[in-house]
Amino acid sequence: MKKGERRVRYWEDLVEGQRFTCRPVTFDRDAMIAFGKEYDPWPFHVDEEAAGRSIFKGVIASALHTISACTRVVVEANGKIALLSGLGIDEIRAFRPVRPGDVLTVEGCWDGLRRSRRKPDRGIAGVKCRVVNQRGEMVLEYGYRYLVACRPNP
User: Fold this and answer.
1) How far apart are CA 22 and CA 147, in angstroms?
2) What is the 8-class DSSP label of residue 12?
3) Which of 59, 61, 103, 115 fits a disulfide with 98 by CB distance 3.0 to 4.6 angstroms?
4) Is the Cβ–Cβ distance between 143 and 92 less than 8 Å?
5) pTM
């Protein structure tokens, strides 16, 4: 293993209830609008004038953009995990809109770890995420479920 390189973490290395905090993510107006135009073209994501007339009184990030950016930092924070597949995203609860210049931090917690009964070479690993803005206000709550390889037998 090279200096600074992380070893692969298997299902057995994950700890129920272990918390982690991800690096902050800053939302840029141009990137928010570009994402909206490409993937979620509601007027309050892509049009300054229309967004100003909306209940949000300005452009906001798509929840899909927010979740995508948060997913990236969750992956970065956890390094090399022997991930086989994503299994799902659990209920997403949005509390506040994300505005240009907002800085979000994801606080994660491993939850619902269990080995597969049918295929003991893998396990289920859940992550619960809380996303807060620079003012400490809750923005999102959601979770992921992953399929993770168990440590291979030597």
Assistant:
1) 21
2) G
3) 61
4) no
5) 0.89
Note the pLDDT of residue 4. 54
How far is it, in rounded angstroms, from Cα 7 to Cα 24? 24
Q: What is the pLDDT of residues 31-54, one digit of tens each?
A: 999 999 999 999 999 999 999 999
Structure tokens at 69: 């950016």
**Look-up: residue for tokens 């995990």?**
81
Torsion sign, CA atoms 20, 68, 143, 5: negative
- Exposure letters 36-62 (e unless 16+ CB within 10 A, then b): beeeeeeebbbbeeebeebeeeebbbb
Q: Residues near 131 by Cβ (< 8 Å), separated by ≥ 6?
A: 66, 70, 104, 105, 106, 107, 138, 139, 140, 141, 142
What is the crossing angle of helices 63-78 and 29-39, to 10°?
A: 110
